[in-house]
Write a structure and sequence with these properties.
Number of strands: 2
Distance between the termini: 47 Å
Strand content: under 5%
Helix content: over 70%
Number of domains: 2
Order of helices and strands: HHHHHHHHHEEHHHHHHHHHHH
Oligomer: single chain
Shape: globular
Strand order of the largest sheet: 1-2
Amino acid sequence: MKDSYNILSGNTLKYFIIIFVSIVLGILIAKGQTIAIIGVFAAIIGLFYIYYSFKNPVIPLKTVFVFGFFVIGITRYVDGPFGMAIDFLLLFCWIITIIRGWRTLNWENTHTFAVYFVLIWFIFIVLELLNPLSIGFGPWLYAMRGMALYPLLLLPLVFLLLNKQEDMMWIIKVWLFISILAAVKGFIQKYVDCDPFEKRWLAQGGYITHVLFGQLRAFSFYSDAGQFGGAMGHASISCFIFFTGPYRKIKKLIFFILFVFFFWGYLISGTRGAIAVPAAGMMVYLVLSKNFKILLLGGVLAGTFYFIMAFTQIGQGTYEIRRLRTAFTEGSEDASMIVRTENKRKLSVYLSDKPFGGGVASAGDWGKRFRPDSVLANIATDSFYVRIWSETGIVGLLLFLTLFFYFIIRGGWIIWFMKDPKLRNKLMALYCGVLGIMAASYGNSVFSQFPSNLICYTSMCFVLMSERQWIKKSQITNLSSGISPKIQ
């Protein structure tokens, strides 16, 4: 068994692949099969990807993180089950992680409440198949992936494979770089024009929600404007917190420019509810700063911003500001708020005797697809939490929120007592960003969609693992007992 493993992991396999592909490629070139040649080159890339993934299991995990930004946008250009690619990549990563690292990896890293919880949550979602109102296994399999499967597969892998500060920095750099690309794409859509494929997508139904009063709501290469706005708000508040960190002036200037850049990206999305991301993130940051002057200054600035938006007409000539102002002015949200309040009332009545909800895939878009005549399919579930409540009942909602509450309390506790200023600043940016997405998910389904779900779950892991992985062991007891650790 050991000898065969060495053969697969050594140079023999690589040389065999090269010789085999060379022979096949030579035959195809001789026969002039252009399409086949392209296929061979794709196969070569795939084979070498698999080979190097077996040597380093973190490669497919990082691929998931990068691909998650583009997975929805790709479907506007090429038809295909690209969402399933995330599933296969995560499963592939698990397979090679078990093969390569069953004895070498420190599996104790996964012994955390967060990992235990996502396992319990997944078991609960599986048991939802026994719900008398369950639609069936097929719809359940589609709908439960983002709800329970991805966190189950992702969190333990992050604790196992991305548990160094260098890994956290890689994630942050890639996240901000792709966010820049996303913002640029959004600006092109808004101020230049959409490409033919995006216009086709708008014509097929996107126009109704993405062109309001003749103005386009930019959506970039994300699923929709709501996700784009939430993602831009997430990146903006994190960059603002990075800007306040103990870095060189040039780096601080770059972070401030990115903060403004991403916030403008949020504005062109026309997503009013996503203002909760920077707003909630900023409030949490002001508290965690433990600086009364910063707290006072932040409170004054926040109050000034609210006053300008709610009681003045400053910037009213700019559509993006005019659109954002409707989130603050009394009466502008009356119609939508009345509808949402009425929907919640209907759900309360319908779910009053259904503690386990109407079954996974019974509400929202999944409900319209698989059971269009049902009650839940015809009640809008704009909120991520409302969807959890509708499909899993009050029991499922409380169970799911347990992870959020744990992260809020434990993560805040860890950051509060951390003394390393640079590490504290990075973790604070990630922590506040996640809490902002949590707040925005009260009105939208941002948390459950790519790429926000990948960023948030990974950020949660980094904050929670910092206590055990990046703080000296002698200080863990002090941190856990509430005594401020002295980090050298």
